[in-house]
């Protein structure tokens, strides 16, 4: 590994350290970032950033760069015109007409105005170009976040890096180009003003240039402090953002009020913010100390140069007009040196964040060609998981352990078991969302190498399905986002799950936005949302349909209707049904019972009841609980009837 390069995969905390691995990672990250890095790394990052900005808009990038050179030229011209104006002004004392002073003053005013207009134009062009670059950079981050393996979202380190990149990187590529523009402008200004000063008095130039060395060191140190501060605050910032989101989301508003949890969450947010402010005050003091040291060093160099200039005037080595020009040149050259050094410092700081960005982009997998979206389920001949095991990050045991299961065309398979038995994990592996830690998945008899092909064959409805704050039509057509939405298919999918009756009655029908967060939106009940999610699965028209607790929010009548219609509506498709309501799976062709990540037994309802195993025990528990509940209600119902 290169010096200073952080290997995110190198740290794998044990179960004992998993709870504190985030803080340890931050410390490790900062420690490695303080390691001297090879100089060759920064030019590569700068080149990549420059290429990104250039590709965004060649015209605007060229205009900004050219403007910096023009502004530097204007500064040099101002020095020369200022010297001429002073010289002509001195001639007035000798009785010469003021007419010779008019032209230099007019030219000086024109050049100053042109320089100001060029600066303002460059600033406004930069604002537009910066926004366009930010869109491109953020878009790439979103692409990676959407593309990484699902298991990545179970690792807090991914969230830390994602938050840090989104918070700090989108403006950095343009910042790099701005720095380059500043370097071009600063460099051109330094060259032009140095030449001007060499003509006036060469001895002054080395003092100003040598004085830039401490400025570079102090500025570079400030860039390092800023990056380290961002890294150290990532985890706390994420937690603070979570508190803000929870306190302001519509989905959480009811429970916050019902339980009165707003107050403790608000206090926790306050504590987190106070900790941030303590760290920020320390950071501000450090940056201010560096800025003050930079300013004092710059001021000391300027004062020293001016004192030398005064001594030269006293000795008669420099005339008054030359001295005036030299004073202006010294001030402008000092400013250009600070611009040059500040650009280098910001370039170094941006390079640190861009390396973080590069590491994040490296998470994106090579995308395989997307399967044909119109391929029907007629081509499906079977899916199997063979001796599959799976473990979540930082977990101390496998969620699945040596599971084998075949899915055949057209059959209904129920996955049942107690909480934590591995049902949903197995479903996600069969749906191509997780890569097994061990074992393999086969599709149509072929070992799966590209899980996108499996995903295309599966319509999945999870317990925590997504509520898109978009139109009803979009919520359903997202079942096949790669093809043009079909209004008739959308309505047919909704009718199959009983969603058409309430969606069609909305103010704009299927065009109604399903969220009150936005104007003219409407909110659905949880049961209605579940039907929309089911409609999305129907719209996908996949040969395998996985339903994870598909009726959890439905009333008994709607639940009975759904289960009664599954076989007819999904005729010819393979259905994987995950549920805790065992009365709903009696009609399944096969029931697979999971226990602690293993297949405990499988068979039809009758076979499993006769065997007297775990399934029979669970059915008995649910049946007795239901009977007990009904028996307790009967006296109350009878009493209510008599009154």
Question: Can you summarize this structure?
Answer:
The chain has 643 residues and is α/β, with parallel strands linked by helices. It is built from 21 helices and ten strands. Strands 6-7-8-3-9-10 form a six-stranded mixed beta sheet, sandwiched between helices. Strands 2-1-4-5 form a four-stranded antiparallel beta sheet, with helices on one face.
Biggest sheet, spatial arrangement of strands:
6-7-8-3-9-10
* CATH class assignment of the largest domain: Mainly Alpha
**CATH topology-level name of the largest domain:** ABC transporter transmembrane region fold
Going by helix content, strand content and strand pairing, the class is alpha/beta
Question: What is the β-strand count?
Answer: 10
Helix content: 55-70%
Count of helical stretches: 21
Structural commentary:
The chain folds into two domains: 42-361, Up-down Bundle (ABC transporter transmembrane region fold), CATH 1.20.1560; 378-457 and 542-641, P-loop containing nucleotide triphosphate hydrolases (Rossmann fold, 3-Layer(aba) Sandwich). It has 643 residues and is an alpha/beta fold. The chain is elongated, with a radius of gyration of 35 Å. It has 21 helices and ten strands. The strands form two sheets. A six-stranded mixed β-sheet has the order 6-7-8-3-9-10, with helices on both faces. A four-stranded antiparallel β-sheet has the order 2-1-4-5, covered by helices on one side.
């Amino acid at each position: 590994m290169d010096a200073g390069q952080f290997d995110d995969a190198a740290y794998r905390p044990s179960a004992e350290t998993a709870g504190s691995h985030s803080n340890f990672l931050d410390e490790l990250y900062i420690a490695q970032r303080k390691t001297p890095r090879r100089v060759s790394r920064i030019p590569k990052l700068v080149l990549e950033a420059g290429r990104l900005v250039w590709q965004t808009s060649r015209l605007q990038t060229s205009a900004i760069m050219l403007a910096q050179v023009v502004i530097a030229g204007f500064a040099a011209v101002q020095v020369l015109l200022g010297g001429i104006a002073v010289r002509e002004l001195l001639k007035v004392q000798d009785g010469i007409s003021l007419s010779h002073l008019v032209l230099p003053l007019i030219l000086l005013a024109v050049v100053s105005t042109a320089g100001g207009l060029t600066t303002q134009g460059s600033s406004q062009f930069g604002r537009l170009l910066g926004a366009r670059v930010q869109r491109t950079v953020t878009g790439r981050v979103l692409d990676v976040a959407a593309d990484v393996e699902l298991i990545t979202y179970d690792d807090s380190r991914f969230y830390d890096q994602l938050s840090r990149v989104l918070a700090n990187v989108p403006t950095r590529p343009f910042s790099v180009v701005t720095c380059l523009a500043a370097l071009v402008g600063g460099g051109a200004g330094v060259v032009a003003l140095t030449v001007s000063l060499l003509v006036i008095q060469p001895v002054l130039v080395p003092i100003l240039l040598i004085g830039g060395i401490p400025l570079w060191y102090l500025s570079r140190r400030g860039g390092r402090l800023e990056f380290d501060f961002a890294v150290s605050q990532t985890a706390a910032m994420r937690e603070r953002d979570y508190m803000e989101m929870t306190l302001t989301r519509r989905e959480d508003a009811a429970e916050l009020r019902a339980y009165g949890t707003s107050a403790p969450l608000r206090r926790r947010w306050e504590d987190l913010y106070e900790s941030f402010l303590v760290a920020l005050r320390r950071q501000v003091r450090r940056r201010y100390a560096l800025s003050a040291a930079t300013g004092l060093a710059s001021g000391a160099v300027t004062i020293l140069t001016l004192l030398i200039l005064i001594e030269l005037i006293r000795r008669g080595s420099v005339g008054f007009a030359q001295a005036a020009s030299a004073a202006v040149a010294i001030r402008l050259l000092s400013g250009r040196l600070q611009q040059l050094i500040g650009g280098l410092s910001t370039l170094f700081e941006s390079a640190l964040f861009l390396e973080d960005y590069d590491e994040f982009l490296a998470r994106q997998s090579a995308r395989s060609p997307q399967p044909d979206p119109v391929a029907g389920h007629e081509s499906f001949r079977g899916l199997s998981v063979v001796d599959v095991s799976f473990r979540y990050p930082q977990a101390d045991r496998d969620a699945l352990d040596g599971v084998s299961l075949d899915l055949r065309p057209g059959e209904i398979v129920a996955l049942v078991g107690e909480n934590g038995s591995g049902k949903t994990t197995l479903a996600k592996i069969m749906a191509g969302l997780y890569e097994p830690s061990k074992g393999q998945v086969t599709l149509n008899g072929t070992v799966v190498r590209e899980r996108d092909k499996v995903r295309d064959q599966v319509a999945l409805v999870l317990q925590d399905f997504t509520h898109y704050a978009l139109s009803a039509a979009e919520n359903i057509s997202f079942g096949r986002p790669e093809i043009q939405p079909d209004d008739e298919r959308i309505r047919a999918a909704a009718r199959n799950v009983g969603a058409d009756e309430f969606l069609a009655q909305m103010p704009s029908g299927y065009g109604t936005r399903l969220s009150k967060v936005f104007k003219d939106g409407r909110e659905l009940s949880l049961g209605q949302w579940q039907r929309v999610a089911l409609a999305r699965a129907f719209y996908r028209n996949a040969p395998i349909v996985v339903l994870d607790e598909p009726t959890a929010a439905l009333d008994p009548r709607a639940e009975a209707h759904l289960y009664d219609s599954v076989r007819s509506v999904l005729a010819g498709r393979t259905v994987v049904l995950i549920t805790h309501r065992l009365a709903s799976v009696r009609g399944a062709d096969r029931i697979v019972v999971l226990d602690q990540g293993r297949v405990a037994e499988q068979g039809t309802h009758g076979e499993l009841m006769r065997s007297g195993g775990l399934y029979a025990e669970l059915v008995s528990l649910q049946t007795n609980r239901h009977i007990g509940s009904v028996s307790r209600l009967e006296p109350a119902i009878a009493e209510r009837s008599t009154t």
